[in-house]
Amino acid sequence: MTVALLGAGVMGEALLAGILQGRPASDLLVGEKRPERAAELTERYGVEVVGNAEAVRRAGTVLLVVKPHDVGPLLDEVAAEARPGQLFVSLAAGITTAFVESRLPAGVAVVRVMPNTPALVGEGMAAISPGTHSGDEQLREAEELLRSTGRVTRVPESQQDAVTAVSGSGPAYVFYVAESMIEGGVHLGLTRATATELVVQTLAGSAALLRDSGEHPTVLRERVTSPGGTTAAALRQLEDGKVRADFLAALEAARDRSRALSSGEPA
Ligand SMILES: NC(=O)C1=CN([C@@H]2O[C@H](COP(=O)(O)OP(=O)(O)OC[C@H]3O[C@@H](n4cnc5c(N)ncnc54)[C@H](O)[C@@H]3O)[C@@H](O)[C@H]2O)C=CC1
Ligand SMILES: O=C(O)[C@@H]1CCC=N1
């Protein structure tokens, strides 16, 4: 079955590359506004780039991977080609299934997804939610497409703003911690190259240990923290700085911003 991917930027390319690992390029149609980007993708992946309306006409499943404020105009552009039996999968932050359904003919199935950028290296985390006309078959189709970029879980749509705050924006928090630790190493006299190598492998190793051991992070942190030692000294400083409370407030801010996008506030 043909899949149309509309909007091939950062997230669109991650999805495109993942899908092509399991399906031939002839199964995929791409709609992309920027001609130079379209040419780049054709050269890199051998995919056919066509107009959005043509892509929707020829596809069974349509992936919407444009920025949230571009979703409405894009749906208006392609709605005449949409038909019941098709599946529309939206990856746009804060765009509800009700919004997408309201712009398409009655009976078109809609699934909402919140992905994240580690999808670029096959280590993504995506949460999916069904709209009014989506059943298990449509959820399984969306799951299969997303699984090519990492893990997939199902959540009620009411939790998507929280998911966006945790795993959608989450990689940015981790990169922020990485930047801060590298800067810390440089302050202690390490070269930037050495500090970067130490931090990147420490984060990758810690993430692998957390996932593969199945242990709670508290247990893993306690194993690093010798009584009266260096880690205890550092953690005390983080507690004094209220870093944990800041994380709670930061995730609330991201959740609230996702809610605001849902109610149509401008970007
Ligand atoms: N970047 C991230 O970490 C995440 C992004 N998302 C969502 O994914 C969506 C895409 O985000 P990015 O890939 O980061 O944005 P991006 O700006 O890199 O890509 C959007 C692409 O859509 C194209 N486009 C815009 N209007 C179009 C139209 N009418 N027809 C065809 N192509 C069109 C643009 O030229 C661009 O290549 C957004 O809705 C965002 O909320 C969700 C989770 C994480
Ligand atoms: O910052 C954003 O709005 C998007 C959604 C989650 C990650 N990036």
TrEMBL record:
Task: Give a short account of what the protein does.
Answer: Catalyzes the reduction of 1-pyrroline-5-carboxylate (PCA) to L-proline.
This one is known as Pyrroline-5-carboxylate reductase
User: InterPro entries from the entry?
Assistant: 6-PGluconate_DH-like_C_sf, NAD(P)-bd_dom_sf, P5C_Rdtase_cat_N, P5CR-like_CS, P5CR_dimer, Pyrroline-COOH_reductase
Q: Which UniProt keywords apply?
A: Amino-acid biosynthesis, Cytoplasm, NADP, Oxidoreductase, Proline biosynthesis
Entry EC no(s): 1.5.1.2
This protein's record includes keyword Oxidoreductase: yes
Quote the catalytic activity from the record. L-proline + NADP(+) = (S)-1-pyrroline-5-carboxylate + NADPH + 2 H(+); L-proline + NAD(+) = (S)-1-pyrroline-5-carboxylate + NADH + 2 H(+)
Kindly indicate whether the keyword Cell membrane belongs to this entry: no
Q: Which residues bind NADP(+)?
A: 6-11
Q: List the pathway annotation.
A: Amino-acid biosynthesis; L-proline biosynthesis; L-proline from L-glutamate 5-semialdehyde: step 1/1
Q: Which species?
A: Jiangella alba
Q: Which family does it belong to?
A: Belongs to the pyrroline-5-carboxylate reductase family.
Q: Output the Gene Ontology cellular-component terms.
A: cytoplasm
* Cell compartment(s), UniProt: Cytoplasm
Q: Where is the Pyrroline-5-carboxylate reductase dimerisation domain?
A: 157-260
Domain Pyrroline-5-carboxylate reductase catalytic N-terminal, first and last residues per copy:
2-94
Annotated residues for binding of NADPH: 52
What lineage does UniProt assign to this protein's organism? Bacteria, Bacillati, Actinomycetota, Actinomycetes, Jiangellales
Where would you say this protein principally sits, based on its record? cytoplasm
Q: What EC class is this?
A: oxidoreductase
**Molecular function terms from GO:** pyrroline-5-carboxylate reductase activity
- On the tree of life, the source organism's domain of life is Bacteria
List this protein's GO terms for biological process.
Answer: L-proline biosynthetic process
